[in-house]
Design goal:
about 270 residues, about 55% helix, rod-shaped, mainly alpha, single chain, DUF6291
Length: about 270
């Protein structure tokens, strides 16, 4: 393991705007590779891309370091042939010494935001791709939540003759953003529908349609002669309307005490 390696300022420029937790992953990966030449663990996509940006330069610098430890570049093979004739020119010999930094200056990454190298371009493309995938996942999650919100509760305990009627009532409750908080309260509502309808599907449908037509939150016995088509406007006097409302409130109170209705339900 090496004791040090070169970390360039342009790397930090590319890293500093990342989230703190991502910065930690990237810096750990670069430092680990710079000192040991390898990475441990599974790198996340952004950390992997940033390491790819720095890896080539780290490998070049480490190779120069190893060459310097061995005495620099190999010396040229000296020729045993003597020069023929008179030499009028002067041949300049290359300066070969152990100073690897003088012979092979490091290739500095570009400074500033111009002339980005291919690795940084690739990183930007990958970041855009990751952002697009994240947005797609968020859309799918929202769609699943919306789908779950419209899913009706289990009503396997409901008789086949009443299933469509009871489903109609539950969908109406969903549209009002109301729901039964437990299976027990749901079963109590079904039991109440059977009681109000006398176990007759047609009457049960009229009971449900009456509550829906009057925008009620609960189920109540049929009123008037039209079985579900009447509402408070059919009353001939204010006194009759008040009497009807009082009757419904009293019945609702009894239903609550008997566990046949939720607290959220109201007759009006």
């Amino acid at each position: 393991m090496r004791n040090s390696f070169v970390f360039y300022g342009s790397w930090w420029e590319a890293i500093k705007n990342l989230p703190r937790d991502v910065q930690g992953d990237v810096l750990t990966a670069i430092i680990e590779y710079g000192l040991t030449g390898e990475t441990t663990g599974q790198l996340k996509p952004i950390a992997k891309a940033m390491l790819a940006m720095a890896k080539t330069q780290i490998d070049v610098n480490n190779q120069r370091f190893e060459n310097g430890k061995k005495g620099g570049r190999p010396n040229q093979v000296e020729t045993k042939e003597k020069p023929k004739g008179n030499q009028t020119g002067t041949k300049v010999e290359p300066n070969v010494n152990d100073n690897v930094n003088d012979n092979n200056p490091p290739i500095s990454p570009p400074k500033g935001g111009q002339d980005l190298n291919p690795d940084e371009d690739t990183l930007s493309e990958r970041e855009a791709e990751l952002n697009a995938r994240e947005q797609e996942l968020l859309k799918r999650e929202a769609a699943l939540k919306a789908k779950e919100g419209t899913k009706l509760p289990d009503i396997s305990f409901v008789s086949d003759d009443f299933k469509d009627i009871f489903e109609t009532w539950l969908k109406y409750k969903q549209e009002k953003r109301e729901s039964y908080k437990s299976k027990k309260s749901l079963q109590a509502c079904y039991k109440k529908l059977l009681t109000l309808s006398g176990n007759d599907p047609d009457t049960a449908r009229n009971v449900v349609e009456q509550s829906m037509a009057n925008n009620w939150s609960g189920l109540f016995g049929l009123t008037g002669n039209n079985h579900g088509t009447a509402n408070r406007s059919n009353y001939t006097s204010k006194q009759e309307a008040n009497a009807y409302a009082l009757e419904r409130l009293q019945q609702h109170k009894l239903d609550l005490e008997a566990g046949l209705a939720d607290q959220v339900e109201r007759p009006f």
